[in-house]
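Comment thread on ticket #2218

A.B. wrote:
> Attaching the input chain for the structure job we discussed in standup.
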Amino acid sequence: MTGYYDIVLGLIPLSLVGVTAVLSAVGFSVTSAVPVAATIPVALIGHALFVNGPVEDSQSSPDAVDSSAASFEPAD
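C.D. wrote:
> Ran it. Output below, let me know if you need it in another format.
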């Protein structure tokens, strides 16, 4: 089963190559089409990281250890 992040990873190169090809066909030079087309993958990555970011499960396992409760005694 493909998840959201699998689709995003597939769309990054497809959108870069596809939009670059379309812009090149319309009349842009390749050197200007690539940076313009790169805004689409950057937007996809930004959406995947910040808007729909990965989160941990809300239910933690009973074996999980609270790092703040670890026994640490500072040296005097």
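A.B. wrote:
> Thanks. Noting for the ticket: The radius of gyration is 22 Å.
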